[in-house]
Specification:
HTH-type_TetR-like_transc_reg, Homeodomain-like_sf, single chain, 11 helices, mainly alpha
Length: 218
């Protein structure tokens, strides 16, 4: 049975700026959230995570989070902007774990491994990671325009471009990296595994073959 959550911390009446701090802006422009606003945001995310676990991320609504947290719907919208913003915030913890692994973790995924090995390990890691959390990734990625322009996708794109250049792959590196990201798209992976019955291991082997073709051409 879930323990009762602590109540939201109400902003001081003498500080009208609290309600002007909404959802988290892009990195580098993020203001320092007041302690009470940060706690409120964390509690809303805790409520949202619990609801997503109970009913599925695809069925999560801003209204349901507001009701469960016993706050007005406007409070949830102010903190996260919209439903996609809420889902992206829920993904943040999982995404940070993956990013830490390929940016600073041990080889072959992290540094100190040849670029071709890191490329192979990167695709396998993304496939396993996103499929393990596919319900949340599918729901958060429903808006294609934001899926491609989001910070997490941009970081993955930059990482792939860097590895392709270090592997001395010729041609338009950015378009190659975009093609590789398309292979890893969770919507495609979910279709191939869930509807076509392909084991995840087959997709990992296919990724290794794709990397090999780019690297061998170099």
């Amino acid at each position: 049975m879930n323990e009762p959550l602590p109540p939201l911390v109400r902003p001081s009446e003498s500080d009208p700026l609290d309600d002007l701090i909404d959802f988290v802006p892009p990195a580098g422009d993020q203001p320092r959230l007041r302690a009470d606003a940060a706690r409120n945001r964390a509690r809303l995310l805790e409520v949202a995570a619990r609801l997503a676990g109970e009913c599925g991320a695809g069925n999560l609504t801003m209204e349901a989070v507001a009701t469960a947290a016993q706050v007005g719907k406007g409070t949830v919208f102010r903190r996260f902007g919209d439903r996609t913003g809420l889902l992206v915030a829920l993904l943040d913890h999982h995404e940070r774990e993956l990013q830490a692994a390929f940016l600073t973790g041990p080889p072959p995924l992290g540094p100190d491994a040849p670029p071709a090995e890191r490329l192979r390990a990167f695709g396998a890691a993304v496939l396993r990671h996103e499929y393990a959390h596919r319900d949340l990734y599918l729901a958060a990625g429903a808006d294609a325009s934001r899926r491609f322009s989001g910070p997490a996708n941009q970081l993955r794109l930059g990482h792939l471009c860097m590895l392709l250049r270090r592997a001395e792959v010729a041609g338009d590196v950015e378009l190659m990296a975009q093609t590789m990201l398309g292979y890893l798209d969770i919507h495609l992976v979910d279709h191939l595994v869930g509807r076509r019955g392909m084991p995840l291991e087959r997709l990992e082997l296919g990724w290794g073959d794709l990397v090999g073709r780019f690297v061998q051409a170099a």
